[in-house]
Flavodoxin-like protein
Amino acid sequence: MATLLIVHHTPSPYCQAMFEAVVSGATDPEIEGVDVVRRPALTVSSADMLAADGYLLGSPANLGYMSGALKHAFDVCYYPCLDSTRGRPFGLYLHGNEGTEGAERAIDSITTGLGWIRAAEHVVVSGKPSKDDLEACWNLGATVAAGLMRD
């Protein structure tokens, strides 16, 4: 069975709504053979990252950058994962009130360094997530999970 690891930092109701939509998409009953594991960014370990076949990353954009919690997750896991996780798919959802570009750029830089492959377009939301935004989050979760299904 494939494993999809969702590494998230959900300090606000808006981030929580996006997280729940991503999880709902990733755990859709039509997606079979994928174990979805959720880990808060401050508790994820390199063993969690190494055991996963793909990743979904979620963060608020704070002061134009990813959350300190997600940065901590990358700091803990970067070198242990550097050569072992190349080519694995990932997806990203971000929430900010303004200035999300720096967070997106930093995460793209780190995931490029790890050799991860973007499995779907990033979902970036400013302000309160709309119905369409939450649907995009659902689609992100479903797309990354479905890409891990094995025949």
User: Anything to note?
Assistant: The mean pLDDT is 96. Strands lie at 2-8, 34-40, 54-62, 65-66, 89-96, 117-118, 123-126. The chain has one domain: 2-147. Helices lie at 13-26, 46-51, 68-81, 101-114, 131-146.
